[in-house]
Structures are given as structure tokens and as C-alpha cells.
Design a protein that fits this description.
Shape: globular
Number of strands: 0
Oligomer: single chain
Structural class: mainly alpha
Largest sheet: none
Helix content: 55-70%
Radius of gyration: 11 Å
Order of helices and strands: HHHH
Number of domains: 1
Strand content: under 5%
Length: 58
């Protein structure tokens, strides 16, 4: 996934880069680096179970 598609996915979910970092329990700068194309977006980031839980609580 490229950084443009990554940003589109975050927007579709109504998630900020900070929200994603909280869900992934990773550094907030990593999400920014992914969104800006400075780091390749990790393939298969395991967010499904946490994302489902987070979305259900929103």
C-alpha cells in the first residue's frame, strides 16, 4: 500500500494518525512517516482485532 492509499484508509475509518498509533501501540511518528511516504507502510499490520474493538466502542 502506498502512502496515499494509507491516508485514504485512515480517512475512511475517521482515524487520525495518533489514533492508529494508539491502536497499534507504536510510536506516533511512525504513522506520520507512513502517511508522508517516508517509511513503507508495513504489510499485514495486525490491527483487525484491536481495530474491531476500537471501532465498536466509538
Amino acid at each position: 500500500m502506498d502512502h496515499i492509499r494509507f491516508s485514504e484508509c485512515l480517512a475512511y475509518l475517521f482515524w487520525s494518525q495518533e489514533t492508529l498509533a494508539d491502536i497499534l501501540e507504536c510510536d506516533r511518528y511512525l504513522g506520520r512517516a507512513w502517511a508522508e511516504g517516508r517509511q513503507p507502510v508495513a504489510f499485514g499490520v495486525p490491527v483487525r482485532s484491536k481495530a474491531a474493538t476500537s471501532t465498536a466502542r466509538s
